[in-house]
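Q: Hi! First time doing this. I have a protein sequence and I read that you can turn it into a structure. Is that right? Here it is:
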Amino acid sequence: MAVAGRRCTLICSLNSNDSAKRCDSLTRVSDTATKDLYALDPADIQDPPKGFWPTLRRIGPGMILSASIVGSGELIATTQLGAEVGYVCLWIIILSCFIKPAIQAEIGRYSIATGETGLAGFNRVPGPRVGVNWIVWGWVAMITMTRFQIGAMFGGVGQVLHQIFGIPVNLWVVVLLGVTLLLLLGGGYERIEGLATIKVGLFTMLTFMCALLLMRRPDNFNWATVSEGLKFNLPPNGFTTAVSVFGITGVGAAELFMYPYWCVEKGYARYAGKRDDSPGWRQRAFGWVGVMQLDIVASMVIYTVATLAFYLLGAGILHKQGLNPAEKGNMIPVLSRMYTETLGDWSLPLFYVGAIATLYGTIFAATAAESRVAADMCRLLGKFEANDYQARLRYRRKFVWILTCVSAGMYLLVQSPVNMVKAGGVAQAMMLPVIAIGALYLRHKELPAEARPGNLATIGLWAAAITTISMMLYYVYLTIS
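A: Yes, that's right. Below is the predicted 3D structure, encoded as structure tokens:
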């Protein structure tokens, strides 16, 4: 790898600036194992792209995030909510997708402007500390609960493969565990981004097509019924599922912690360079924040379309027919009805392929991100120095083993994917107010003045924070009353 990197550097020195940029990209790919992606090296500084299409070509972190989002949240939790309550919670789906990106953007802005990781930023928030602060320990508690959610993905893929080949689900879970370890222990950012982009695009288009066909069936879909779901009514039952869906659809709490790490590994912070308060740094920082914002918008469009499509299919088909994916062993056969009822029986193999890609994509993308955050927590606890990238990689690999094995083990113990997703979703929902408070603190107390956003972005951040805090306070009130 090092030889390839040196060869590319030599070629770059002999070619034009455009070729140099392309070779620089190849160098970063080749030297992933040795180059510290978290260090602000002056050699990495780049001017941000200008124009829509050049900027669009530099997005990517949001595609990985979408691969994590368009999985357990959409295929399982969202369709389960639609199956339980019909269209009445449509407003929760829309709110969940549109409100949280304001918090996501602020956390990403902080990482680009300071060069710090997301967990390091949250660790600055005042409050109780035991090695690290209360928000970081809150992340540990949440990730512990989301092992149920990722375990549900192992079970879901295993159920699909069982439907196809007849081999027991538990055996498939063990096989998937081995495949996941091979992929995650051998790949860097570029592999994860590429696989995530393909997976998200294919299954989102297929599900969107099913939703369009559903709209042509008046017995399952009419606009008058859909409009009832926009009236901010809460279902008499299924509210726990609704809270779970709010926690994990759109950008969930786990993804809010993940996102700045993908921004760092993509290079946005390195390209802006170390803060020196010069006009050049300010221009670069705002430029790369702009790239990040387009990345957020692009991914939001993708996962919003997918989420709405899954919800409409769950409400229009599963609820109408009284089908419940939560019954043991029923999840995949019931969910497949969304496709066979709209496209026909011929679409069942397509559903199987799409379900495998979607559910496994969540395992892959979520574990890849969470192992990075866990390794960074060890750094904050003093287990290794900030500039020791090899130690960071060692800890990351250890957590790939731990997180993957625990998740698969959770399914083998519980074997109820829908309820496991709900448990992880509620944990994420309860963490959202904590993240919102942390994002507000970073915006007003820690973000460099030169990188602070305008009034509109600040108002959006406060609106998102107030909404998420209010939702969770109301949930707690209903739970204890």
